[in-house]
Specification:
This protein is of the alpha+beta class. The protein has three domains: 4-178, Formiminotransferase, N-terminal subdomain (Formiminotransferase-cyclodeaminase, Chain B, domain 1, 2-Layer Sandwich); 183-348, Alpha-Beta Plaits (2-Layer Sandwich); 355-559, Four Helix Bundle (Hemerythrin (Met), subunit A) (Up-down Bundle). Helices cover 51% and strands 14% of the residues. The chain has helices spanning 17-28, 55-72, 101-119, 138-141, 149-153, 194-204, 266-279, 295-308, 317-328, 338-341, 343-348, 360-368, 376-399, 408-443, 450-491, 497-521, 528-559, and strands at 4-7, 10-11, 33-41, 46-53, 88-97, 123-127, 174-178, 183-189, 209-210, 231-232, 239-246, 251-258, 284-290. Strands 1, 2, 3, 4, 5, 6 and 7 form a seven-stranded mixed sheet that branches. Strand 11 and strand 12 form a beta hairpin. The longest helix is centred in the last third of the chain and has 42 residues, at 450-491. It is flat and about 80 Å long.
């Protein structure tokens, strides 16, 4: 699955749109990156840009944007309401899909190093990317702002993490970080009272509310020995919030910033807001996501609400999103369109049409055409998709079988495993065709000079290895999926046992067909150790799949009268 990270650089220019356009143009020149939002502010004289893509491409786009900003923005004349210390003030990277924070930190530091060395801009790493613990806090890194930078750079304790410890008057300094995804999330209330909305927000947000003597509303604020107000914490970590009235909708909302959705996910914030609102006689009518959200946030919400109903979570991605939207009331104020609100879908919209997006008829017609791809590898993967889909269907039917209510979670777990196998195999349907195209591209490389011949040979070797690895992955995943069919043939709904049997037959065909493709693609690989390893392991998987197929079919035949 493709790794995605988001980058949200803040540039110290919010008034000259010509400069802003030149900076964002640099981002758009990088393939594999999508510019999502450009938000200039005149008062702050600052523009927040959001783009997303695969990691290497994102840091390339970020570097180009920082380089352009360093050329166009002169910090000696900059004035604005927002704290800042450089032409590119901050440049955080945010993990979005299939990538850990630890991996994102590596990319952030790689970007910081390049900015420092190639552009001669002092760089401080903050949040999760911090190399020095006290620099985790951005406010600490930016203390004194641009005007205090020259003095600070002269102090040993403020030597930048990358780049020169010298004052760059034109560009200032930049902070590069890695942080969690921030979700702007509003909860709708059946009241027009900002005061009540604020009270609920204070109940929830991590900071809480000011502690008071006696009366919690009108009492004197409690202060500590330094004279600072003391706060009673709210119930949710990593949440900021206030209440406000939205004239456009004629309602009050709780406006929340979820600063770490791995600590407080969207559905947890919604449930807590609903509980605290009810305690104050207010009802939550729905909610609103501002900006974009990672797919995982809605999938997790969908699963949460299905589990509350004691229903199987092993359903399709689109069904999980539908459950999340209805349960959270995301369509309360206006239609919620997933392809416009989910980051991964925004990226996918820019990509070419995939085989798995075709109708059954179109896929069959494409396969039957004179084009060599899709071929046996893609069809083997799709046979695996069909097989595990049948096994998953039996699991879902079993979870809803009358009289088996107490077993819903058992079958939900099997259905979820089946869905995971199905999704991976769907990915491999297209990946097999891409692997074939890689080989064709390699053979089409120039071969005029000795160096070109060497490059071509190396490209053919790598593409051929990849063309072996994809069907090998199909083998492993299809064989793994057969455990779902075996379980359903053993303990699943007896009325659907034949479906589990057909699923096992499809999965076995996928394993055997994929193994043929592993072997035929071996002819283009010179690395004989690599070939022998995959052929040997594939042979064992093929034998195991055959034995498991016979076992499952015997179970099915024994139950069919």
């Amino acid at each position: 699955m493709k790794q995605l990270i988001e980058c949200v650089p803040n540039f110290s220019e919010g008034r000259d749109m010509n400069i802003i356009r030149q900076i964002t143009h640099e981002i758009e020149t990088v393939e594999g990156v999508k510019l999502l939002d450009v938000d200039p502010g005149k008062a702050t004289n600052r523009t927040v840009v959001t783009f997303v893509g695969t990691p290497e491409e994102v840091i390339e786009a970020a570097f180009l944007a920082v380089k352009k900003a360093a050329h166009l923005i002169n910090m000696t004349t900059h004035k604005g309401e927002h704290p800042r210390m450089g032409a590119t003030d901050v440049c955080p990277l945010v993990p979005v899909a299939n990538i850990t924070m630890e991996e994102t930190v590596v990319y952030a530091r790689k970007l910081a190093k390049r900015i420092g060395e190639e552009l001669q801009i002092p760089v401080y790493c903050y949040e999760s990317a911090a190399l020095i613990d006290k620099r985790r806090n951005l406010a600490v890194c930016r203390a004194g702002e641009y005007e205090g930078l020259a003095d600070r750079l002269g102090k040993p304790e403020w030597k930048p993490d990358f780049g020169p410890a010298e004052f760059n008057a034109h560009s200032g300094a930049t902070a590069v970080g890695a942080r969690d995804f921030l979700v702007a999330y509003n909860v709708n209330l059946n009241t027009t009272s900002t005061r009540r909305a604020n009270s609920i927000a204070f109940d929830i947000r991590e900071k809480g509310r000011v502690k008071r003597e006696g009366n919690p509303v009108t009492g004197k604020a409690v202060v500590d020995q330094q004279g600072n107000k003391v706060f009673t914490p709210g119930t949710l970590k990593s949440v900021k919030g206030i209440g406000w009235f939205i004239e456009e909708y004629g309602i009050a909302q709780i406006s929340l910033n979820l600063t770490n959705i791995s600590i407080t996910p969207v559905h947890v914030a919604f449930e807590e807001a609903s509980r605290k609102a009810a305690e104050r006689g207010v009802r939550v009518t729905g909610s609103e996501l501002v900006g974009l959200v990672p797919l995982k946030a809605l999938l997790d919400a969908g699963k949460y609400f299905l589990r509350k109903q004691q229903r199987s979570v092993g359903v399709s991605e689109s069904e999980l999103i539908k459950i999340a939207v209805k349960s959270l009331g995301l369509d309360d104020l206006k239609p919620f369109i997933p392809k416009e609100k989910i980051i991964e879908y925004m990226i996918a919209a820019e990509q070419n049409k995939k085989l798995v997006d075709m109708s059954l008829t179109a896929f069959a017609d494409e396969t039957a055409s004179e084009s060599p791809a899709p071929g046996g590898g893609s069809i083997a993967a799709y046979a695996g998709v069909l097989g595990v889909s049948l096994g998953t269907m039996v699991a879902n039917l079993s979870s809803h079988k009358r009289g088996w209510d107490e077993r819903w979670e058992e079958f939900s777990d099997w259905a979820e495993k089946g869905q995971a196998c199905k999704d991976e195999l769907l990915h491999l349907v297209d990946e097999d065709t891409r692997a074939f195209n890689k080989i064709m591209d390699a053979f089409g490389m120039p071969k005029n000079s000795d160096q070109e011949k060497a490059n071509r040979k190396q490209a053919i070797e790598e593409a051929s290895k990849y063309a072996m690895q994809i069907p090998f992955r199909v083998m492993k995943k299809s064989y793994e999926s057969m455990q779902v069919m075996k379980a359903m043939a053993t303990v699943g709904n007896p009325n659907s046992v034949s479906d589990a049997g057909v699923g096992a037959l499809c999965a076995r065909a996928a394993v055997r067909g994929a193994y043929m493709n592993v072997r035929i693609n071996a002819s283009g690989v010179d690395d004989k150790d690599f070939v022998e390893k995959l052929i040997s392991e594939g042979r064992e998987i093929e034998k195991a799949a055959e034995a498991l197929e016979h076992e499952i079919v015997a179970l099915v035949d024994g139950k069919i009268k």
